[in-house]
Amino acid sequence: MVRRIVGVVLIFLLLGVLVACAGQQAATPTPAETGGQQPEQPTPTTAPEPTQPPEEPTATAAPTEPPKAEPVTLRVMVVDYIPDKTDTWLEQEVVPAFQKEYPNVNVEFTYVNWGTLDETVQGYFAAGEGADILNLGSEYIAIYGDQLAPLNKYLGEEAWPDIKQFVPATLDTVTWKGELRGLPWLTAPRAYMCRVDLLQEVGIDKPPTTFAEAIEEAEKATIIEDGALKRAGIVTTGRLDDWQEYIALIWSLGGELYKDNGEPTFDSQEARDALQFMYDRRRAVYPDETIADLPPASGSRLADGTAVCIWGNLWGAPPVDDPIWEKIEFSPGLTYPEKYPDSMPVVQVFNDWLAVPAYSKNVELAAEFLKFLGSAENLNRYNKDFGSFPPRQDAWTGYVQETRPMQIMSDLMNQYGKGFADVRESPKFREILQREMSAYFTDLQDLDTTLENIQRDYTQVLQDAGWIE
Amino acid sequence: MMWSSYLYTLAWAAITVGFIVVSSAAVGLVARLVARMRGATLRQQHDTFAGYAFASPWIVGFLIFVLLPVLASVYWSFTSYRLPNPPQWVGLQNYVRLLTEDRDFRAALVNTFYLVVFGLPAQMVVALMLALLLNQHTRGEGFFRMAFYLPVILGLNSAVLLAWVLMFNANTGFVNVSLRALGAKVPLVNWLVRAFIYVVELTNAFFIGLQNGNYTLLQKILAAGFPPPHRVPLWLQSPLWIKPSIILLLVWSCGSMMLIYLAALNGIPREFYEAAAVDGATKWQRFRHITLPLLSPATFYNLVVGMIAILQLFEQPYVLLRDSPTVARGGYTVVLYLWRATFRFNEVGYGAAISWILTVIILIMTLAQFKLQDRWVQYELR
After folding, report:
1. Looking at the complex, does the CB of residue B237 fall below 8 Å from at least one CB of chain A?
2. What ipTM does this complex have?
3. Measured between beta carbons, which residues in chain A are less than 8 angstroms from residue B346?
4. Would you kindly state where each structural domain of chain A is located, as residue ranges?
5. What number of CA atoms fall less than 13 Å from residue A143's CA on the CB side?
6. Cα–Cα distance between A294 and B231 in angstroms, integer?
7. Is B120 near chain A, with CB under 8 Å?
8. At the fourth CATH level, which superfamily is domain A189-349+422-464?
9. pLDDT of B108-161, one tens digit each?
10. Within its chain, how far is the Cα of B354 from the centroid?
11. Contact at CB, B8 and A27, closer than 8 angstroms
12. What CATH number does the domain located at A72-187+351-414 have?
C-alpha cells in the first residue's frame, strides 16, 4: 500500500513539475510574441514596469507574424458616492473611445467614497495588488508619494506637451521628489453659499462674512418644529467635512497647522477661537442636543430649502444651470475682525488627482489612459457634470465661462484660494479631529479637553510617523 | 500567450494537489514509524498509516491556516508591524499602550461590555417571550416562526443594515414616525416613550461619564428633567443613542436564540405541568418552577454563544456608524477597533495585540460561565 501511495505521489510531482514548467514557459514572452524587438511605443501587450524596461530579446528569433494583442484589464478606482451621469459618461463614452485605440483593453471601474478610501488604498498597497489607477485627494501625495510610480517619462513635457496646460499649483499637488505621480483630475474650491430669499425672510440681506454674522444667521434662519429641525441656518457641523472647515477657519485667522519644529498648533489661540466659533454656531442651529437632525438629503439642501447656507464645493450644490442659482449668493469665507484685524477669508481648494501605484503591472498603459482622460475635452466634460473646475487652463471653456456660479467660484478661488495640501498623516489626523470635535459639539467634553486631546494625539501620530524627532 | 494564465492556474492546482498528497504520505509515514517503534503489528502499522494519511489534509490545513497564523499573531503582537514595513520587536509596548494609554480602546471595551450587559439579556428575554408565544401552538404558528426567524436568514448584511440606517433617522425614519403617531393617538404611549428616553439617556450618560471621567452630560440631563412631549429617541444621531440602536438590532435578530428556546420548550414533558396543575400550581408558578429551571441548559447555551457573539460584534457598528463620525466613538466595539487599527491604519502588530486581549477576555468570561453553571443550570427537576 505504501509503495502504491509513493507511486501516486511521484506521478503527481512529475505532473506538477511538467505543468509548472509549461506555465512558466508560456508566461515568459518569446521574441516572436514581442515582435523580436524592444517596443518603442507603449503597447498593451507588454505593459512594462517604468523602472524595469523589457528584456532585450535574442536576435535569433525573428518575428514571423505581427504581435497578438493580449487582453489586458485596467482597473480604475474612482471616488464617487452615487451612480450619476459622471459614471455613465466614464463607462459608456470614455471607455469605448479609449478602446478604439486599445481594442484589447478592458477598463473596470471601482467606486469608493472618502470614508472608505484610506482602508481600500492601504489594503492595495499592503497586498501589492489592486487598482492600476487611484483617485486620491489633495493631501495624499505626502502619504503615498513613495509608493506611486514616477511618471515623468510618460507625462513630462517631453513625452506629453499637453502637461503645460495644467495649472502649475495642481501639478504641485501630484509631484513627489521631482516626479509626477499622477494627473490632476478636478479642482473644487469650497466657499459658503446661501439662499438670499430665505435670508431675507429673516431680515438678513447677504451671506455672512464674519464669525458674528454667521452665528446670527444660523440662529435666525433655523426652524425647529416639535423638537425636530425643519430648516438649518447652516449645514456643516456633524458632517464628514467638519474637520476641513475647521482647518479653513484656522487659516482664515492667520494660523497655521504646524510650528517650525513640526509640532501641531492646536495649543494656539487661532485653533481655540475657530473651534469655539464652530461650537457656538452649532448651538445657534441646535440649541441643545435633543433636536432631531434633518432628514436624509435627496438632492441639494440649498435647492429644497432645508438649508439656508452650506459650506462646500459645487458638487453638493444644485446643478450649475439650475434657475435656483438666481437666489444663491456666495461668501468666500468667515473672518473675526474684532479679534484678528488681519484675518482674511480662505477658499479651500481641493485637487483630486489620478495616481498610478508602483505595484501596477500596467503603469505605461495606465499613463496612456490618464493622457486620454486628461484631454481638454474630457476634463471639461467630467468637471461640468461634477460641478468642479478642470485643472487644465485650455479646458476652462463652455460652462466655466458661461455659468454664473462657476464664474463667481473662479473669481473667489483666484482671490482667496489656498490649496488643501501639506496636511500630514491625514487619515489619522482626520480621525482625531472628527472624534474630538464631535465629542465637543455634543457636550461630551469641554473646549480645553478637546484641544488638549487633539494636540497630544496628533503630536504622537506625527512622532510615530517621523515628522517630529 | 493566451493560454499562459490557464496553464499557470493548472500548474498551481497540480502543485496544490501534489502538496496534499505528499504531506498526507509524510504524515502517514511518520505515524507508521511511531507505531512501529511502539511495537505495533504490521496490520496495525498499515491501519495507522492509512488513518493518519486520510486525516492529514485537515491536520495540515489546520497547521497552515490556523495554527501558524495564530502563532504569527502572537509574535506580531510584540512587534511594531506597520505594513508595508517589516515587523520590529517592541516587547510589551503594544499591550502597555493598549491597557494604559489608549483611550479609544478603553471606550471600545466599555462599549462592548455595555452591549453584553444590556444587549444580551434583552436579546434573551425577547427570544424567550417569542418562543413561549410560539409554543402555544396557535393557528399560523409556522408563519410566525418563519417571520421571527427571518432576520437571521436575511443576516445582518449591509443592505439590511443600511435599511435600518434609514429607519433610524431621528426626524423622518420609520421608527420615530411610528412612535410619534402612536404617541399622538395614545397619551400613555407618549409618556412611556419619554420615560424610556429618560432612562436610556441617563444610563448612557453615566456610561459615557465612566469612559471620559467626566459626568457633565449626566448632570445636564438630570437638570433638564423629564423629557418634554415632543421628544423622540435620537437613534444614530446622538452618542447617547448609539448603543441602544445596536441593542435594538440585536433584539431584532434574536431568531436563533428563539429556536433554541423553542426546541427546549418542546422537550419539557407535559406530565410535569399536569402534575403541577393537579397540585394547584398557578401558571406563573408552573413557569417559575418547571419551565425556567428546565430551560436553564438552553439559557446557558444562549448565554455563552450570545456573549461570545457580542464580544465579537463588528458589522452592525461598522455599517451604522461609518458616515456618522459625530457618534463613532460611542459605537466602537473591540473588534471594530481591531479592524480599524489593522486594516485602516495598517498597524498589524497593534491589531494583533488587541485580538489577543480580546481572546483572553472571551476565555475568562466563558470559563467563568462554565464555572458558575453548577449554581443555576438544571438538567433535571430537583
Report:
1. yes
2. 0.81
3. 122, 126
4. 72-187+351-414, 189-349+422-464
5. 20
6. 15
7. no
8. Periplasmic binding protein-like II (3.40.190.10)
9. 999 999 999 999 999 999 999 999 999 988 888 888 888 888 888 887 788 899
10. 16
11. yes
12. 3.40.190.10
